[in-house]
Amino acid sequence: MRELLSYGGVTTKIRAMKKNLFSDEEFRELVSLKNMEEVYRFLADTDAYREALAPLAGSEIHREMIETAIDGALYKDFSKIYNFADPAQERFLKKYARRYEISTLKKALSRIASGSGVLEGEPPHKAFFDKFTQLDVGKIAKASDLNELIRALEGTPYHEVMTSTAQRPGAEIFDYETALDMYHFRDVWRDRKRIVPEGDVDTIAKAYGSRVDMLNLWFIRRAKVWYDIKPEEISQLILPVQYKLKRSEITELIAAPDEESFAQILKKTYYGRRYEELRPDNLEDMYVYVLKNVLRREAREKPYSAASMFSYLYLREHQSYKVTAAIECVRYQLPQDEALRSISVF
Q1: Could you tell me the domains of the chain?
Q2: What is the pLDDT of residue 3?
Q3: pLDDT above 60 for 73
Q4: What pTM does this model have?
């Protein structure tokens, strides 16, 4: 009864908002479009993006404008849930909003690395970030290099994260992104018992623990195959949380001399035993599948819990990623089947 009283309003709102989640058929139609004008008209006719895209009516449509509106629709959904939250749920949601802070910082890092210059005018979604986060997105938008970006983060926990990374010899964008992710997951894991009521702690542990485990598996293989990073360096870079993945298994995976050995060790882990289709070459796809599976099960079994908020927001975020990827497919006019395969990893 306590859970029903606490989560009744939020859960009812989320059930209504689930109409914003696209079907497979809607994604199939989206990737079959021919240009940005068609993409705009299609998205503007959906419940998910109608409100966010309305201000663009009558404008010359560019990809960046649509992608900014897609982010805005996600932030609007977050705000709607927050408006129905009680103080305990607000604590969780504000911690969850760190994901959006880190996403913004990664975009700033990418912009600086590409040399595309500072952002002119008021930065997108400033009102949202002013209300829910610690970031001064105005300063971040005006940062023209890494040093200016770090200075723009003074007074936030990201300042120390970025400063420490900058002190590493040869640090690259990948290192900054990894450091930001490590901070976020370590922060949530450490505070999980303080940001939700006691009955929700297990849900947060399952959601974040499974995600960290799968990210570590994916990162270990990526580091070995794509970047040829030495085993001792990989150990220092993986996320410092273990849930179902044992430390001894992580050590064995890092030391695996080849792909076959890696696959054999992977099969013996909790995730290899639970998901028969898990292989080294599909870890990225399985990361998304496993977390969706965990969150949907938790939301179904515990509808009046933090799982309802976490599950919906996660699925809504992944819809944003898929829609953005679909827009890229339209931009390059990929055949429909190829485009659907390329967005299936999200």
Answers
A1: 1-67+309-346 (1.10.132), 97-195 (no CATH), 196-302 (1.20.1690)
A2: 57
A3: yes
A4: 0.89
* Residue 216 pLDDT: 93
What span, in angstroms and rounded, lies between the C-alpha atoms of 232 and 76? 43
pLDDT tens column, 282-305: 988 888 889 888 988 988 898 888
Structure tokens at 227: 């970047």
* Residue 21, both tokens: 């989640």
Name the one residue in this structure whose structure tokens are 């970031």.
135
